[in-house]
TrEMBL record:
The keyword Ligase does not apply. Heme binds at C459. Keywords: Heme, Iron, Membrane, Metal-binding, Monooxygenase, Oxidoreductase, Transmembrane, Transmembrane helix. The keyword tRNA-binding does not apply. This is Putative cytochrome P450. Its cofactor is heme. It holds the Pfam family p450. InterPro entries: Cyt_P450 (IPR001128), Cyt_P450_CS (IPR017972), Cyt_P450_E_grp-I (IPR002401), Cyt_P450_sf (IPR036396), Cytochrome_P450_monoxygenase (IPR050121). GO terms for molecular function: heme binding; iron ion binding; monooxygenase activity; oxidoreductase activity, acting on paired donors, with incorporation or reduction of molecular oxygen.
Amino acid sequence: MGSSGLFTTAVPILSGSHTLFYAIAGLVCAFYLVRPFLSPLRSVSGPFLARYTDAWFLWRVYRGHVEQDFIALHKKHGAIVRYGPDRYSIEDLEAPKIIYGHGNSFVKSSLYRSYALPGEQDWNMFAVENPKPHSQLRRQLQSTYSLTALISYEPYVDECSRVLKQRLEEVSAAGLPIDLGHWLQCYAFDVIGLITYGSRFGFLDRGEDVHGIISAIETSLNDSFHISMYPSLRVPVALLRRWLSGGKSGFAYVSRFVQQKIERYRVDTKTATRETKKEESGKMQSFLEKFLQKHEADPTNFTLMHIFSGSAANVAAGSDTTGTSLSAIFYHLLKRPDCFQKLREEADAVQPSRQNEFTFHEALGMPFLQAVIKEALRIHPAFGVPLERVVPEGGATIAGRFFPAGKKVSIHCWVEHRNELIFEDPDEFRPERWLIEDESKLALMNRHWIPFGLGSRTCIGRHISMLEIAKLVPRLVRDFDFKLQERPEALWKTKNMTFVKPQNFVVTISARGG
């Protein structure tokens, strides 16, 4: 057979191969396109693209306002919304109890893995998915974060509030506008640094991002949020960041800082006499000291990794939660001058001399202050990520619809806090709503007030955040006058990088006269 014969024989074979390839490709595409319409949840509405891919969610995360996107989705589509092929957001009065109730078997989804490096999940309370190791770790740490432990941390908060007051007095004397959100975050970082490590980072002293710590945390949270649906990318992204920074990032500084603290503690412990140990036992203790004592008592079950991870989580999560919440409180107070004045009158009544820091006990006894805090955290919760869980084996009925096992369901606190069945006029800042006498209504609102999460995975550091907030707010309201800048370039803006942080909170400030 000649070459021409071979060619004519090969053409049909190749042509047949191409036909088979195109047929298979067509079947795969057809299945991919049709599959969503074969699902028992096919009637759940949402963005069209979300039926086929997580790209819609990823794009909205990238834009930085996903909390507003979720609110808009529920307004348009109702109680159940699809935001990915197997992801569903729920707005229903009974859903929180079903999904997050104690003893329920809904586990965290892989969305959280990106917030911890591989091998770190067992020590990272936020990222760990399995309830059993989470419960064990929480039990080990619970006493350190308890309400009774708060009293020992008050002097740390007082020290930082005094420094902040000094900085604000200096700023007010200059008469220049300032980004109040920046200073409130400096306060939050220095308090959590002092509580955690026994030393302030120095944000308040310098008024700037010390060693790039804030920038490093923001970058890490931003990366984690952006790749949350692809957690396998966490390691290469982290290694790339480390390489680009040349080992000089804020995280590298914190790591060296902690290592130095540990070594100093070990040296001091070895050289301490019985008398000095007795004296030290009566002094304030930082988290790091308490963690190291736990490690010495049980090094097998409370490792150095527990110490590093636990203290780092304090700084990363605690500073952003508190700083963002404080900004939200003051922003909404300045938008409601009548509320600001009412809170000032309450503060003056508690401390007429205007000389001292407010104790936590005093702050808890100020009903309008507590209402202001609750309302600000309702209308602007710091956390901006859907609280995603995996439907357990056997499936579950939520909001009147059956969800098969393996589907991912979530409640977004920004959506929950704007449910009109729970909160009337949900877009209005009204602290008075928390001062009503209708106990059943109050109970309903409290059940669905979830700025720190809910169920067994509630933020373990919430009491510390509330301590910092409750002590600082009345002091600043009592001692300073603030004026919100209304110029277009100074308007309040936010960006959701796991936490919904203010980007532009410009005010003028003056020391209160009289």
